[in-house]
Amino acid sequence: MNVWYREDVYGNMTDEMARGWRKVKKFFSEKGTKNIFVTSIRDKIHGDDSRHPQGDAIDFYTDNVTLNLDILRKILGINNFDIVCESDHIHIEYDPE
Questions:
Q1: pLDDT by residue (tens digit) across 12-58?
Q2: Which helix (H) or strand (E) holds 61?
Q3: Residues with Cβ within 8 Å of residue 66, at least 6 apart in sequence
Q4: Which of 25, 48, 53, 66 lies 20 to 30 Å (CA to CA) from residue 1?
């Protein structure tokens, strides 16, 4: 499976987010996904309440049209991660609150 990063995507993730991201990549790889396209990690274009600036969020989309968010939530842990399907990407953030 290929993971592609948009040209202006930069920064690292917190350890907790990085562990979650590894689980997400494994999930998609096992589902037969060929490509994941990362559109945002750390940036300042998101709002003040965003978890992107501190490295606790990632936005991406895939070439896999079948996505079961409930399974993804279970893999990541319902209490620690929020998953939102936006119109053009999936947003995952580490948010244990």
A1: 999 999 999 999 999 999 988 999 999 999 876 777 788 998 899 99
A2: strand 57-62
A3: 31
A4: 53
